[in-house]
Task: inverse folding
């Protein structure tokens, strides 16, 4: 179905190709998982299939890519729209209409499908993707995960023969991700759809793949094989494979079920040992800094080691006049394409930029306590948060989890003063965020937003970093060093819009970390990051927590939460439904338990790091 003939892509200003020697065939009716480190060229390779590369990104494509016989260099994305459905990494760049139902129908309308067919497919898709309750909602008012589901739904309705998906589950909660993947698998099995999908969270997807396509390093030829073959050689692998390698299992397990069947001996080895809770520097053991007692009316959730061994322990292809490539890329053939980016949060971008630019103040104090009392937030007609009472203490890392639309981003945005409480109170170090001038608030709290682009305004990585150093009055080079520490190889002179997703996130993280805010908020901070980059981020965050910073991560990444969170708070429909030490909360939840915990249950292990240390 998809043929690559000696394909290479070289972006403008680059001396070496980003991808080269791509020579392979993807047969009809297979789900092929594209994997590789951050910035290696996965989106570039996907773009050669959807036609976005080079039509929207610029650069030179050599060789030939054909999809069902159509050459993607001579067919623009619009001319492939009936054949290829594409979802890029940024759902906002994807949308063409204003409401959920219109968006689901749009692709079919463009292809001229009969109204009764469109109606039926819209209804089917609303049900399949759990969108029925949102059908009339303006897309701009949806949460990040809700938007990602709409983006996926809108490419499913026209029933294209080929789906090209770039990190399609990155903003989805674990249950929604499973639902989407099983829908895709059904399309592959029942309709013979061909799916080419890039994903970093392999723990979610590897067991659904017929084959895996590995890009091992920039410019290296890709390797196609069965998932088991590729997992044996891949530099990126999920915890189940890491555990299998550690235990010497052959063949390597790909699913929790496979691993459980082999875990008997490992369990016996671990029986007399106890897992260590997370602390600084990637090691496990006693936290370096004990958190002071909470001052609010709620229970303290300082980092408390469980007493071990305890049982808890671009874009869819559509007419270019209405879409923008991420960050307003240019179609050299058709001139500048206006970026269509619905304002999800009015003034969010400007507010974040203001928050950053306001930092002419002295470096912040190391610690801050945030208190939320009976917080309620109403957004349009939706109660996004209700009766939230929480205290966030210095030295503590809290993972805020819960299904899409539960209220996580709303809570973080309230803590940085971008949303005003409807009822109740929020204070950060005694200040009320929405009434505190940005230049003062920045001393107390920093947010890495769900869309890192919202934080970036300079023309190059180097200029962003220089501005971040100046804003935070940090020594020159601080931010740049942090970028490299998180993700090596991010170029200095590239425009942030041309960075890969992981590179852009590493830049946004570094900018906020440069300010070393006492209260550090991160909204889904692992999109686009490979496992090594995530481990480095975890190290940085552990060190900050050990120095007394309070950290809150809104995340669907259960593996990250297990690695670094002392405490997990689960939101549902705007309310707190669970709050306690990580092991207590996640182990009892099939959705939020990490792979190691599922494999070794009922023993209280959460991460491969804990197992490795116990076996050492
Ligand atoms: N339009 C562009 N112009 C110049 N360089 C680009 C452009 N798009 C991507 N690049 C560069 O090409 C390289 C590969 O980027 P790409 O987005 O394909 O990587 P990726 O594997 O998808 O990364 P991630 O896992 O972070 O999403 C990166 O170094 C990136 O900076
Ligand atoms: N600007 C807005 N106007 C109206 N409703 C909104 C707006 N932004 C979000 N909402 C709604 O508020 C609720 C909470 O959204 P929020 O973005 O806080 O969820 P979330 O837990 O961060 O979700 P996700 O995991 O998908 O990012 C959702 O029902 C969402 O649809």
Result:
């Amino acid at each position: 179905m998809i043929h690559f003939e000696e394909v290479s892509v070289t972006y403008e200003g680059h001396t070496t190709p980003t991808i080269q020697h791509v020579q392979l065939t993807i047969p009809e009716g297979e789900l092929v998982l594209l994997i590789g480190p951050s910035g290696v060229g996965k989106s570039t390779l996907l773009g050669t299939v959807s036609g976005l590369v080079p039509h929207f990104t610029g650069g030179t494509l050599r060789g030939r890519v054909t999809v069902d016989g159509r050459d993607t260099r001579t067919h623009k994305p619009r001319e492939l729209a009936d054949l290829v459905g594409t979802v890029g990494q940024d759902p906002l760049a994807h949308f063409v209409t204003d409401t959920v139902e219109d968006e689901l129908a749009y692709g079919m309308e463009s292809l001229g499908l009969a109204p009764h067919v469109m109606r039926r497919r819209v209804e089917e898709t609303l049900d399949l993707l759990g969108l029925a309750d949102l059908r009339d909602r303006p897309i701009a008012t949806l949460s990040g995960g809700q938007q990602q589901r709409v983006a996926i739904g809108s490419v499913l309705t026209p029933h294209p023969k080929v789906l090209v998906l770039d990190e399609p589950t990155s903003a989805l909660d674990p249950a929604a991700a499973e639902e989407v993947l099983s829908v895709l698998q059904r399309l592959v099995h029942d309709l013979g759809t061909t799916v080419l999908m890039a994903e970093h969270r392999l723990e979610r997807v590897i067991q659904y793949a017929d084959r895996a396509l590995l890009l091992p390093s920039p410019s290296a030829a890709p390797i196609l094989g069965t998932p088991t073959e590729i997992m044996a050689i891949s530099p990126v692998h999920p915890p189940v494979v890491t555990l299998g390698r550690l235990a010497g299992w052959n063949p390597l397990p790909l699913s929790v079920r496979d691993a459980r069947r082999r875990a008997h001996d490992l369990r016996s080895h671990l029986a007399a040992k106890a897992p260590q809770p997370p602390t600084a520097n990637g090691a496990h053991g006693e936290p370096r800094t004990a958190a002071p007692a909470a001052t609010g009316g709620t229970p303290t959730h300082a980092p408390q080691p469980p007493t071990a061994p305890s049982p808890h322990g671009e874009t869819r292809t559509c007419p270019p006049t209405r879409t923008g490539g991420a960050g307003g890329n240019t179609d050299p053939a058709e001139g500048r394409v206006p970026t269509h980016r619905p304002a999800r949060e009015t003034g969010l971008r400007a507010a974040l930029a203001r928050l950053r630019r306001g930092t002419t103040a002295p470096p912040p104090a190391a610690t801050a306590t945030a208190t939320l009392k009976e917080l309620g937030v109403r957004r349009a007609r939706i109660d996004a948060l209700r009766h939230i009472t929480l205290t966030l203490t210095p030295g503590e890392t809290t993972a805020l989890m819960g299904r899409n639309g539960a209220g996580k981003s709303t809570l973080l945005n309230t803590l940085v003063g971008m949303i005003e409480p409807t009822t109740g109170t929020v204070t950060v170090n005694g200040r009320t965020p929405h009434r505190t001038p940005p230049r003062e608030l920045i001393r107390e709290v920093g947010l890495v937003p769900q869309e890192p682009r919202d934080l970036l305004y300079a023309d190059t990585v180097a200029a962003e970093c220089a501005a971040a150093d100046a804003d935070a009055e940090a020594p020159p080079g601080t931010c740049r060093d942090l970028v490299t520490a998180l993700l090596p190889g991010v170029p200095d002179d590239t425009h942030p819009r041309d960075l890969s997703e992981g590179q852009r996130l590493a830049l946004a993280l570094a900018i906020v970390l440069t300010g070393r805010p006492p209260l550090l908020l991160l909204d889904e901070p692992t999109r686009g990051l490979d496992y090594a980059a995530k481990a480095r981020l975890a190290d940085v965050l552990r060190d900050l927590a050990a120095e007394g910073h309070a950290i809150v991560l809104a995340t669907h990444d259960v593996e990250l939460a297990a690695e670094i969170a002392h405490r997990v708070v689960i939101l549902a429909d705007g309310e707190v439904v669970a709050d306690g030490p990580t092991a207590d909360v996640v182990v009892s939840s099939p959705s939020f338990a990490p792979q190691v915990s599922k494999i070794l249950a009922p023993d209280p292990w959460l991460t491969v790091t804990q197992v490795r240390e116990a076996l050492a």
The domain at 28-59+68-237 is CATH 3.40.50.300 (Rossmann fold). The pocket of adenosine-5'-triphosphate (ligand 2) is lined by residues 141-146, 171, 173, 345, 379-380, 382, 384, 402, 404-410, 554 (CB under 6 Å). DSSP finds 22 helices and 21 strands in the chain.
